[in-house]
Amino acid sequence: MATSLFRKRPLAMLTAASLLPLALLTTPAFAECERGDLDTIYCDENGDMVADRPTDESEWANPDTLIFAYTPVEDPAIYSDIWQPFIDHLSEVTERDVRFFAVQSNAAQVEAMRSGRLHIAGFSTGPTPFAVNLAGAVPFALMGSDDGQFGYTLQLFTHVDSDIHEVEDLKGKRVAHTSPTSNSGNLAPAPCFLNWVSLPMKITKWSTRAATTNPCWA
């Protein structure tokens, strides 16, 4: 799917070179069609849960300059330098100018892709479903190691003088989460806390389902 969005050199090579969950922009489709949970401007006729390209090739995105953005961080300027080797590689294999775009929030990153101002992005785990459903993002790579392992861990912190030493000690306490769309900062720990100590909290259908399908270890 990534290769036919552009008419110059194919982008399939990026799947091996990329290290983060990346996504390609798919232009909107306005016809009545099957779309699942996707926004109404997208179609999903083949049921793969990502937006289809328009059947009319004239509607395909074909920018001379590709815009790449990494998930929002505290100091975007630092990551601009870190990503320069990838940007240089992307420019070489696509034969296009590639520029780094620093985003200030997950919402801004999703909106930039939805509006067509962002073409390739490294989304963090939590916002990825929003990028897919609302911006037509098509994930094609994720961070991994040379031995094939991938993923990350979330950690729970409390004050050094606190009386909280184990997860069970959270019962009856107020727990601060990060962004509502963050996987490690909210979506993953919410069902885990529910399993571990039955903490009362408002959680989404997605995280409730995750609590029954994904094991949590304290």
Question: Can you describe this structure?
Answer:
- It is a single chain.
- With 218 residues, this protein is an alpha/beta fold.
- The chain has 2 domains: 3-141, D-Maltodextrin-Binding Protein, domain 2, CATH 3.40.190; 167-213, no CATH class.
- 28% of the residues lie in helices and 9% in strands.
- The protein has a 5-stranded mixed beta sheet, sandwiched between helices.
- Helix 4 (106-114) packs parallel to helix 5 (128-135) and helix 7 packs across helix 8.
- The longest helix has 11 residues, at 84-94.
- Residues 1-31 form the signal peptide.
- Keywords: Signal.
Brief digest:
Helix content is 28%, strand content 9%. It has 218 residues and is an alpha/beta fold.
Low-pLDDT stretches are 1-29, 202-215
Name the strands of the widest sheet in spatial order: 3-2-4-1-5
Topology order in helix (H) and strand (E) letters:
HEEHHEHEHEHHH
Number of strands: 5
Number of helices in the DSSP assignment: 8
User: Gap between N and C termini, in Å?
Assistant: 40 Å
Total count of domains: 2
- Structural class assignment: alpha/beta
Q: Note the overall shape.
A: globular
Radius of gyration: 20 Å
**The CATH C-level class name of the largest domain:** Alpha Beta
Q: Could you tell me the mean pLDDT?
A: 75
The residue fraction in helices comes out at 25-40%
> The CATH topology of the largest domain is what?
D-Maltodextrin-Binding Protein, domain 2
**Per DSSP, what share of the residues sits in E-state strands of 2 or more residues?**
5-15%
Q: How can the largest sheet be summarized?
A: 5 strands, mixed
CATH architecture of the largest domain: 3-Layer(aba) Sandwich
